[in-house]
Fold:
Amino acid sequence: MRYLILGSGPAGIAAAKAARKLDKDAEVILATEEHAAPYLRPLLPDFVSGERELSGVADPQGKDLADLGIRFSGGKRARRVDAARNRVAFSDGTEETYNFLCVATGGRPILPLALMGAPGSFLFLNSLGDAQRVRERAMRSDTTVVYGPGYLGIEAARAMRKLGNEVVWINPGLPRFGNPISGEVEVRVTDRLRARGVKVHEGTEIADVTDVDGRIFEVVTAGGRTIRCHLIVVATERLPSIGFLEGSGVKAGAGILVDEYLRTNVSNIYAAGDCAEVFDINRRESRINFGWRSAVKQGQLAGENMAGGGQVYIKNAEDYFGLLYGPPLNERVGA
Structure:
């Protein structure tokens, strides 16, 4: 049997390990567009701020993949899935076949419309490569604008301020997707950021960006305020990264539609994590349940079910976004 898992985040690793555990003689391949070894995405702000070195963000779940006989294949961005032939084509021109496929490709951040015409002004804070670029550029910057709602914006603002930058956080408001942190917690944490010198503009958007001289940029908010900065860090919500499934026959809404067994409408294709829109048997509805713990749980069940299990995914309170890897948000901002 051949199991192909797309994505090396918590869902992908959990799926690979679960499939291996139940099918010890199978071939298990973990293909990912990442070139780096698996890492803990929630800890990337700590790497940017200098609180952790590169080794400190390594995902311990990914350290024993080779020992388990799981082949890790990096630099593999999925381009197309041929469900009829059980084959995935990658952007580097290679292909992989499978008996069972698990899509755990996570999400990609949303880019504000105003930034689409100013590519040199901003950097995402989404991947390890992004974090390395942000850290390097921040060392040469004095003022940074952080754009993004809720947890992601808070963490990016905290990290950049810890690094020594003057920080202006543009918080557009409640996230449109996922599970927002409670209003009480956000108010308390935002007050702590202000106390540490972060300027906060709430309930507004970036309306325009002008390149002043190739090093300095002018950001104009929807409220008419103008902010001069050296860097814009985009820490926005992530939408499922599933464009490569177009034409495959796999049904999708906002994410990949799966049943309570994490199975798509194509019987040998499963999905887990931030790219999966899972059917909740209690609420009788489908939803994307963003979060680290949720991704691990879904990945494990998808891997088990690919290998012959019949486990049903039942969401509980511990699967919500607010419960991430590492210390709680209150402690992180208060540190």
